[in-house]
Amino acid sequence: MLEVKNLMVFFENALAINDLNIKVHGGQIVGVIGSNSAGKTTLMNTISGLIIEMRIKEKRKGGERITVYGDIFFKGENIMEIRPSERVKRGIVLCRERHPIFPESNVMDNLKTAGHLRKNSEMTDAIDYVFNLFPALVHLKSRKAGFLSGGEQQMLAVGMALVAGPTCLLLDEPLLGLSPLMQTELMDAIQNLRNEVGLTILMSEQFARPVLPILDYGYILENGMLSLSGTGSDLMDNPEVKSAYFGI
Ligand SMILES: Nc1ncnc2c1ncn2[C@@H]1O[C@H](COP(=O)(O)OP(=O)(O)OP(=O)(O)O)[C@@H](O)[C@H]1O
Ligand SMILES: [Mg+2]
């Protein structure tokens, strides 16, 4: 469904992504695991197209040069030059790092804003689905989003991405700042999305331990380069992964 081919991303002369190849088949949960500055967010921004806007903005202010080489195929079509909003319409929806929500709006309005590109009936169904997936949000409907806890905000952010109607959901470090209990809840919800709706999910994380068990396939990213790949259970059993990510 999604294929990243020979991707290279430079910020000025610094290489953030180095000849990366990734495949995500329909209905899979695929993970990109890497520590700080491995290139996770750059990858997500490139797949979602946000990097195109960053590139234009930087150029306008005479700032750093962002250069992207390589190809991204979605459902067989090269989407490299397609605008981010058009990619959303085609089903590629990114839930960005550190749950960006509208803090002054309430939970319901945040969800509605996320669904503004969709038909009303589809949006209502999607919002119902989000409340089913995250029952903790139900009694927070009219609460200002800025007053939610970090975990609640993260659920809202994932909920907003879902209301936008993805066929391929991109999650950039969804576990960041969550308690172990919240992490488990979110991982369960992500598995439900694959198992019940057949959603295709690409997620990035620094913490391998809670993520590897639910992955159909995973890639380990180091300094923008692929160091290892395999099924979730292969990676869990790999001695290098164990020593680097599990401390054993
Ligand atoms: N706008 C930018 N300008 C210059 N360098 C950047 C920019 N964005 C990212 N980089 C650099 O690219 C590399 C990859 O950064 P990226 O944010 O993709 O990493 P990450 O894996 O998401 O890290 P983290 O876990 O901290 O979120 C880093 O060396 C970073 O400094
Ligand atoms: Mg990041």
**Approximate shape:** globular
What fraction, in percent, of the residue positions are helical?
25-40%
Low-pLDDT runs of 5+ residues are none
Please give the largest β-sheet. Answer: 6 strands, mixed
End-to-end span in angstroms? 35 Å
How much of the sequence lies in strands comes to 25-35%
How many H/I helical runs? 10
Bound molecules: adenosine-5'-triphosphate, magnesium ion
Quick structural overview:
With 248 residues, the protein is an alpha/beta fold.
Give the topology, please.
Blueprint: E1 2-11, E2 14-24, E3 29-33, H1 40-48, H2 50-60, E4 66-74, E5 77-78, H3 84-90, E6 92-95, H4 107-114, H5 120-133, H6 150-163, E7 168-172, H7 180-197, E8 200-205, H8 208-211, E9 217-222, E10 225-230, H9 232-237, H10 239-246
The structure holds adenosine-5'-triphosphate (ATP) and magnesium ion (MG).
Question: What features would you describe in this structure?
Answer:
By secondary structure, the chain is an alpha/beta fold. Helix content is 40%, strand content 26%. The protein has helices at residues 40-48, 50-60, 84-90, 107-114, 120-133, 150-163, 180-197, 208-211, 232-237, 239-246; strands spanning 2-11, 14-24, 29-33, 66-74, 77-78, 92-95, 168-172, 200-205, 217-222, 225-230. The strands form two sheets. It has a six-stranded mixed beta sheet, sandwiched between helices. It has a four-stranded antiparallel beta sheet with strand order 2-1-4-5, covered by helices on one side. The longest helix has 18 residues, at 180-197. The relative contact order is 0.19. The model has no long low-confidence stretch (mean pLDDT 92). Bound molecules: adenosine-5'-triphosphate and magnesium ion. Magnesium ion binds at residues 40-41, 97, 172-173.
